[in-house]
Write a structure and sequence with these properties.
Elements lengths: L2 E6 L2 E6 L10 H15 L6 E6 L36
Parallel strand pairs: 2-3
Antiparallel strand pairs: 1-2
Length: about 90
């Protein structure tokens, strides 16, 4: 699992758990994170959410580059979230 959740009374701690990849966000991790945030939002007992990354080297390295298997999420140019219009690369 790429996201761990712990609860202590009214505080939920969500940990991005991809330490070997500096907690970089790929699509499965983003989906898991969003699902967990939806669950937390629906729980009226939660008063605070702490978002953290596993390990000591990085909170998160950001989003990983588009994996080829995520082609269904790629724009017409084949790049994640980008269209070919105005793209000079």
């Amino acid at each position: 699992m790429t996201v761990r959740t712990e609860r202590d009374d009214h505080v939920v701690t969500i940990t991005i758990d991809r330490e070997a990849k500096l907690n970089a966000l790929d699509y499965p991790t983003i989906d898991a994170l969003l699902a967990e945030l939806d669950r937390v939002e629906a729980d009226d007992r939660v008063r605070a959410v702490v978002l953290t990354g596993a390990g000591r080297r990085a909170f998160s390295a950001g989003r990983t580059s588009c994996p080829s298997r995520a082609a269904s999420r790629a724009g017409p140019s084949g790049r994640c979230g980008r269209s070919s219009a105005g793209d000079t690369r």
